[in-house]
Design brief:
Oligomer: heterodimer
CATH class of chain A: Alpha Beta
Number of strands of chain B: 0
Structural class of chain B: mainly alpha
CATH class of the largest domain in chain B: Mainly Alpha
CATH superfamily of chain A: Ribonuclease Z/Hydroxyacylglutathione hydrolase-like
Distance between the termini of chain B: 37 Å
CATH superfamily of the largest domain in chain B: Hypothetical protein af1432
Strand content of chain A: 15-25%
Largest interface: A-B, 31 and 29 residues
Helix content of chain A: 10-25%
Order of helices and strands of chain B: HHHHHHHHHHHHHHHHH
Radius of gyration of chain A: 19 Å
Helix content of chain B: 55-70%
Strand order of the largest sheet of chain A: 6-5-4-3-2-1-14
Number of strands of chain A: 14
Largest sheet of chain A: 7 strands, mixed
CATH topology of the largest domain in chain B: Hypothetical protein af1432
Chain lengths: 293, 280
């Protein structure tokens, strides 16, 4: 199994001189199994470039796993060229919309409404199908086993674990570890703390010993003090989780949109300096970076 | 499922929540600085909001390995923003009419439900239930009489008659309901809980809160809490009959109902706690 980052930015694309190194496209990760089956995490703007490179290999058979339906994880979908070309096959996986009860097909249908986009979803030429993902219900894509895990974010968000070819990888999508909503003086504090611990334990049991963890690490601890409940994680929380599950490699992603390459370099240097004893290797997700497992 | 049961469920789907919590949810949602714990406090003090959120989180879509039986636990799994949006969806339905045709006092009903919730949790703690599970006892207490509030709206004439008969003849309300409507609030509540795929122990606590013969600790705590709330006149849900503790429960708690009440200490503190939830 190998994977490649095509988009690592959070919230909004950030092209420009300040982000050339790590990249300005929003979330998209390509995974290739040993048999070359294609699995894609999220359809941020990074998917556009990925799909362009696949044009010479058409017809393609792509499995796109959407973590959640916030714009930065779906707005590349209408710009995937292969969906307009007969013979290609795309399967899009994701959760159900809580309010409408609709499946993941809503992500494309809504974006492709007449006022927002010139082509309607019904006019797609490829064979596009949709599959609703359920909590903890494993499914299979060729030789890969996928385990979806519900993670805290302002909208339904699935993290996905992939096991294939004897290797494993887990991507959180967007994720903020639940904090205690009570203060130690509140009578509910301890009870809530125990509930969080039980939840984290069950999460850890699902992603234990993964080879690679790719985690939403939008904020520094200092920034997080003003960004609580925004639904995003910190570098520190990511490292703690990686330690708990015994991951071999941790990739920080969903870079905060105003974060320059220089700022990311400085944060990375500091993290390496402060975590020298860590068994898990730390990396900053970077557009174009390909990793073989 | 009978036609009456299907209608009952359809009615609950569009049933509004209590006025105070609806207003509070809208107010809190509009304020970006409002705290998650305030929102949780409002939701968990309203049986309608609580049961509707539990319905969503326990639905087939989530298929969580364990059933979710409290709002706090729901929050840990799906996050505050989703909980807030669910509460807003309930608020959007409108507010429960306090003047139903059954002339059932919804304010006293809410007070009784919250009293049984608070007392069930207290009894659970006394029985050594791990802290993490004590909120399940609160929820079971809060929802034990849920069927009554639906009857008051959905079958007001029959329910009014049942209330009258129960009062005049000093018989248990659930027996009068059964006689007049062919179903009592405990059975209706169980049917709803099962249809909405809520936890089985919660369905049992709702179903069996008038009979402890087959009950587990949750059922037993709700049963005892219900009698204490009635005996101490904290709110009212229309049933004038106070049951003594059966032998199994005397042995379980190690004392009679009166002794249990005394052992709980100053009842005015419990009443104050209930009032706090009423004001949440």
């Amino acid at each position: 199994m190998k994977f490649k980052f095509w988009g690592v930015r959070g919230s909004i694309p950030t092209p420009g001189a300040q982000t050339n190194k790590y990249g300005g496209n929003t979330t998209c990760i390509e995974i290739r199994t040993a048999n070359d089956d294609l699995i894609i995490f999220d359809a941020g703007t990074g998917i556009h470039q990925l799909m362009q490179t696949l044009l010479p290999q058409m017809p393609i058979d792509a499995h796109i796993l959407i973590t959640h339906t916030h714009w930065d994880h779906i707005h590349g979908l209408p710009f995937c060229m292969p969906i307009y070309i007969p013979g290609n096959k795309l399967t899009i996986y994701g959760g159900q919309d809580l309010k409408t009860g609709e499946g993941i097909e809503r992500a494309l249908k809504v974006q492709m409404q007449h006022s927002f986009f010139p082509i309607a979803e019904s006019e797609l030429k490829a064979e596009v199908s949709y599959k609703t993902v359920k909590v903890g219900e494993k499914f299979f894509i060729a030789d890969a086993t996928i385990t979806p895990v519900l993670l805290n974010h302002p909208v339904i968000n699935f993290g996905y674990r992939i096991d294939c070819d004897g290797k494993s990888l887990f991507f959180t999508g967007d994720y903020e570890q639940q904090v205690n909503i009570y203060t130690p003086e509140d009578r509910e504090y301890l009870e809530f703390e125990q509930m969080i611990e039980a939840y984290v334990d069950s999460l850890v049991s699902i992603i234990r010993d993964v080879d690679v963890l790719i985690i939403d690490s939008s904020f520094t601890d200092q920034e997080y003090q003003h960004k609580k409940n925004w639904g995003h994680g910190t570098y520190t929380a990511a490292i703690k989780l990686a330690e708990k599950v015994g991951a071999k490699k941790l990739f920080f992603t969903h870079h905060e949109p105003t974060r320059s390459d220089a700022a990311l370099d400085a944060i990375y240097e500091e993290l390496l300096k402060n975590n020298q004893e860590l068994v898990c290797e730390l990396f900053v997700a970077q557009e174009g970076l390909e990793v073989k497992l | 499922m009978t036609d009456a049961e299907a209608k009952f469920i359809t009615y609950v789907e569009r049933m509004p929540a209590f006025p105070k919590s609806v207003h509070k949810v809208i107010q809190l949602a509009a304020n970006v600085d409002s705290s998650a714990k305030d929102m949780v406090a409002v939701i968990e003090s309203d049986p309608v909001m609580t049961i509707k959120i539990l319905k969503v989180i326990n639905s087939a879509f989530y298929s969580l390995p364990q059933k979710i039986t409290s709002i706090q636990r729901a929050l840990v799994h799906i996050g505050m923003n989703t909980i807030k949006n669910l509460a807003l969806s309930v608020a959007a339905i409108g507010v429960l009419n306090p003047h139903n045709k059954a002339e059932f006092d919804t304010g006293l009903f809410l007070e009784h439900s919250l009293a049984v919730a608070v007392l069930s949790k207290k009894l659970a703690e006394r029985m050594g239930v791990p802290l993490m599970y004590s909120s399940d006892y609160f929820v079971a207490g809060l929802l034990h009489d849920f069927g009554k509030i639906v009857f008051a709206e959905f079958m007001p004439h029959e329910f009014k008659l049942a209330l009258q008969q129960s009062k005049e003849h000093q018989i248990d309300l659930h027996l009068a309901e059964l006689e007049i409507m062919g179903i009592n609030h405990a059975q209706a509540g169980r049917m709803l809980a099962l249809k909405w795929e809520l936890a089985e122990n919660l369905a049992n606590a709702i179903d069996l809160h008038h009979s402890v013969a087959q009950g587990d600790l949750l059922v037993n705590c709700v049963f005892a809490a219900n009698q204490i709330a009635k005996k101490c006149h904290i709110g009212s849900a229309g049933n004038p009959i106070i049951d003594a503790l059966p032998a199994e429960l005397i042995s379980l708690f190690g004392m009679s109902l009166d002794e249990l009440i005394i052992s709980l200490g100053d009842m005015s503190l419990i009443k104050a706690e209930v009032q706090q939830f009423m004001q949440a």
